[in-house]
Design goal:
Layout (H helix, E strand, L loop, with lengths): L2 H23 L1 H8 L3 H32 L9 H29 L6 H42 L1
C-alpha cells in the first residue's frame, strides 16, 4: 500500500479521534440542547460511552495501519488478532451501551424528544452490531490470507 494512502488514512484517523474527544468534552452542551433532567444524563452517558468505543476502534485501526507499514500484518504470531479483537469488543460494547440507552430513553418516554433519541440509540445499536459482525468476517479473511501466505512462503 502506498505511503500517501497510509498517510491520508492516518490523518483521517487523527481528525476522527479529535472529533470524538470534542464530542466527549462537549457532551454536556449537546445533551443540554436536546434534553433536560434525567434524560440529559442518559444522553451524556451515551455520548461519552459511545465516543470511548469509537476511540478504541480508531486506535485499533491505527495499530493495524502501523502493522501494514512495518509489513507485519500477515505475521504468523497473531499480533493483528489483538487489535482486531479489540475493535470487535468495542463495537459490541457500543451496541450494548446504545441498546441500554434506548431502553432508558423509552422508559422516560413522557419526556419530550425521548422517542426520537431512543430511535437514534436503536440505530446506533444496529450499526454497531453490523460493523462488529463485518469485522468478524474480515478477521476470518485475515486468517485465511495469513495461512495462504505461510503456505506460499513454504513453497518458495
Amino acid at each position: 500500500m502506498s505511503r500517501s494512502v497510509l498517510g491520508a488514512l492516518r490523518a483521517l484517523l487523527i481528525v476522527l479521534f479529535a472529533g470524538s474527544l470534542a464530542a466527549q468534552a462537549g457532551s454536556g452542551l449537546i445533551a443540554g440542547a436536546v434534553a433536560r433532567g434525567p434524560l440529559a444524563v442518559v444522553v451524556i452517558t451515551l455520548i461519552v460511552a459511545g465516543a470511548l468505543c469509537v476511540e478504541v476502534v480508531l486506535l485499533s485501526v491505527w495499530m493495524l495501519v502501523a502493522m501494514i507499514r512495518q509489513e507485519t500484518l500477515f505475521d504468523d504470531r497473531g499480533h493483528a488478532d489483538r487489535w482486531v479483537d479489540a475493535a470487535i469488543g468495542a463495537l459490541m460494547a457500543a451496541a450494548v451501551v446504545s441498546a441500554g440507552g434506548a431502553v432508558a430513553l423509552v422508559v422516560q418516554a413522557a419526556e419530550p424528544g425521548a422517542w426520537g433519541l431512543a430511535l437514534l440509540a436503536v440505530a446506533a445499536c444496529g450499526a454497531s452490531a453490523a460493523l462488529a459482525l463485518l469485522v468478524v468476517v474480515m478477521r476470518r479473511l485475515l486468517h485465511t490470507a495469513i495461512s495462504l501466505r505461510s503456505e506460499l512462503a513454504e513453497v518458495i
